[in-house]
Amino acid sequence: MLTHLVILQVIVPLLAAPLCLFLTSSRLSWFFALISSLITCVISILLLQQVMTVGTIVYELGDWNAPWGIEYRIDKLSAYLLIIISSISTVVLLAAQTSIEEEIPQDRHNVFYVLYLLSLAGMLGIVATGDVFNVFVFLEITSLSAYSLIALGRDRRALWASYQYLIMGTIGATFILIGIGLMYQMTGTLNMNDLSVRLREVDQTRTIFVAFSFIFVGICLKLALFPLHFWLPNAYAYAPSIVTAFFAATSTKVAIYLLIRFTFSVFGLSYSFTALPLQTLLLVLGLLGIFVASIAAIYQQNVKHLFAYSSIAQIGYMVVGISMNTTMGLMATLLHLFNHALMKGALFLALAALIYQTGSVRLSDFQGLGRQMPLTMAAIVLGGLSLIGVPLTVGFVSKWYLVLAAIEVGWWPVAVLMLVASLLAIIYVWRIVEIAYFSPPANGMAQGREIAKEAPLAFLIPVWLLVSSNIYFGIDTRLSVQVAQAASQSLIGLSP
């Protein structure tokens, strides 16, 4: 069984998804989905232990040797991502059954779990596979599930948000597919490891330059990198809250993984940073994304929109780390990838609890919630402090290493700009704190529900599990730093 852990990582949620349709109740489907996600989480932990001990794991499907057959290849980077995706999925699912009672019609509950598990399987498949066409296939599984999940909500604006995401996602996937096709035309292989060797012989041709450009643009669309980010705020704001929590903590991380994988592993550093002015491009777009999205977040009245723009800004930080083209810069990006998953998972789950109790995410409806829902609002405050980068939180760890990486390459102005951008986060987090703690409680009802009531344990347990992780990994950084450093060293080409 241990030799098949790699494929089981993807097969378990992929097979569990359609089975949810045949279960007799929503609660049974929820429990089945939770167990399936928990199994993938356990498998990912075992895979990470194995990779850190013995090195890269290669699994050949059907015993067909690559490049003729499809292989799954788990190295330190992919094992790191598998842990993030599967653990966040499991924690989010703890609150799913309670959350969807209010936001998704009863007759669609089983469909929700089908789509959720398909999306999970797709993301795990993207990370696990060593075949570029398989990346596209799993990307489509994830994307199609995501479009449907966003559209499941009662708010009709969710349909428009889903449609926007569908258009942009389809364009991005088409760009990626064209790039993959051009690479196959020039090399005759789809295996990533094989491609990294064969591309060296033809990397000066115009075809490979075009392939690289198409793949880069396609990934940036999926990533919501500024200025290709316009689909993300509405997708996060109008999707069911549990869907937002899952995607905010995982989907953009998978896109960052693809950017790193193609840039560092498939095309290689020597080509990636010379074929295009990639360093300048990523640095400028990353910094612009940080400032433009942070300023936009300050003016939002919908708190989901606020944190959605914050996510675009955090993507900017990760991209700036990649642009440094150093082991320290890449390690800082990988650290922030993990830490941001913890931050946004906690924040959007806490918002899901608020929506469950109040029926609103309008900032004006947060009046007095600090006293009426103290545990939920405390979670949002701690998550916000992590976004700012206050010491003893994971956000501080990320920004510390990003600043160190910028100083290491002599980018003092970039280091200063990142610190200044953190001050913008203080402004939009303070807006929430001010109205929740320093405004009198709103009287009456919010959409027919009393608001002076703490969230149920079904929300508080997963929310505080993630908030506690924000604090724990902000104090004890050994595990996260060790794995991120090992992954970055192996990608840059140094000894692990």
Kindly provide the radius of gyration, computed on alpha-carbon positions and rounded to a whole number of angstroms: 22 Å
Output the structural class: mainly alpha
User: Which shape, going by the Cα principal axes?
Assistant: globular
Number of strands: 2
Beta fraction of the residues?
under 5%
Mean pLDDT: 87
Order of helices and strands: HHEEHHHHHHHHHHHHHHHHHH
- Helix coverage percent: over 70%
* SS summary, helix count: 20
What about the largest sheet?
Answer: 2 strands, antiparallel
Strand order of the largest sheet: 1-2
Distance between the termini: 28 Å
What low-confidence regions span 5 or more consecutive residues with pLDDT below 50? 444-449
Description:
This protein starts with a helix and ends with a helix. 77% of the residues lie in helices and 2% in strands. The protein is an all-alpha fold. Residues 444-449 have low confidence and may be disordered. The radius of gyration is 22 Å and the shape is globular. It has a two-stranded antiparallel ribbon. It has a domain at 277-496.
Topology:
Layout: H1 5-19, H2 26-54, E1 57-60, E2 71-74, H3 76-103, H4 109-128, H5 132-151, H6 157-187, H7 192-202, H8 206-223, H9 231-238, H10 241-266, H11 269-275, H12 278-298, H13 303-323, H14 327-358, H15 369-372, H16 374-388, H17 394-408, H18 412-437, H19 457-475, H20 478-492
Antiparallel strand pairs: 1-2
